[in-house]
TrEMBL record:
Native source organism of the sequence: Candidatus Kaiserbacteria bacterium RIFCSPHIGHO2_02_FULL_55_20
Transmembrane feature ranges: 42-63, 75-97
Protein name: DUF1003 domain-containing protein
Tree of life domain: Bacteria
PANTHER family: INTEGRAL MEMBRANE PROTEIN-RELATED, MEMBRANE PROTEIN
Lineage, uppermost ranks: Bacteria, Candidatus Kaiseribacteriota
C-alpha cells in the first residue's frame, strides 16, 4: 500500500505565507488602501470604456451634435485637455504609490527569503558535520574531499556581503 505524503509541511508553509501577507497588509496606511483600491478599479477595461465614452460624449456636445445641450468647451476643447491632463497626473501618482508599496512588500519578501536561505545554509552545514561524525564513528572509509571540508565550514556572511558590495560597487545592502 502506498504511503500518503504528509500534508503538514505544505499547510505550515501556506500558513506562514498567509501570516506574512497579513502582516504586510496590517502595516497598510489609508493612502495605501485607497491607492490600491483605485488602481484595481482604474486598471480595468470598463474604466477605459467609460473614459472613451465620456470623451466622445464631451466632443459631441461641444461640436453641437447633441441638440438641446449647449456647448461649454468649444473646439479645440481646452477644458477637456485640462481635465484629461489632470486625470493623467492623478492616475500616474496613484500608480506610483501602488508601485512603491509593492516595492516595499518585495523588499520584505527578499529579506525573509534571505533569512530562510541563511537558516537553511546553517542547517545543511550542521547536517554535513553530523554525517561526517557518523561516518567516522562507523569507521566508513572516506576519501579526502576538500570541497566537502569547505562545505562543512560555517558560512561567513560578512565576507559574502563584502564580495557582493565589491563586485557591484554599492555599499547599501541590509545586514544579513
Amino acid at each position: 500500500m502506498d504511503k500518503v505524503p504528509d500534508a503538514g509541511p505544505r499547510i505550515r508553509q501556506r500558513r506562514i505565507r498567509e501570516e506574512i501577507k497579513s502582516r504586510l497588509y496590517m502595516k497598510q496606511t489609508w493612502v495605501d488602501s485607497l491607492s490600491e483600491f483605485l488602481t484595481l478599479k482604474f486598471g480595468t477595461v470598463p474604466f477605459l470604456i467609460a473614459n472613451v465614452a465620456v470623451f466622445i460624449f464631451w466632443i459631441l456636445i461641444n461640436i453641437g451634435d447633441i441638440p438641446g445641450i449647449g456647448t461649454f468647451d468649444p473646439y479645440p476643447f481646452n477644458f477637456l485637455t485640462m481635465v484629461v491632463s489632470l486625470e493623467a497626473i492623478v492616475l500616474s501618482i496613484i500608480v506610483l504609490i501602488t508601485q512603491n508599496r509593492q516595492s516595499r512588500m518585495e523588499d520584505i519578501r527578499d529579506q525573509i527569503d534571505t533569512e530562510i536561505d541563511v537558516r537553511a545554509e546553517e542547517e545543511i552545514t550542521k547536517v554535513l558535520v553530523m554525517l561526517d561524525k557518523v561516518a567516522r564513528h562507523l569507521e566508513v572509509p572516506l576519501e579526502e574531499d576538500p570541497e566537502l571540508e569547505r562545505m562543512k565550514e560555517r558560512t561567513d556572511l560578512k565576507r559574502i556581503r563584502t564580495e557582493i558590495e565589491r563586485h557591484s560597487g554599492q555599499r547599501h545592502y541590509p545586514q544579513l
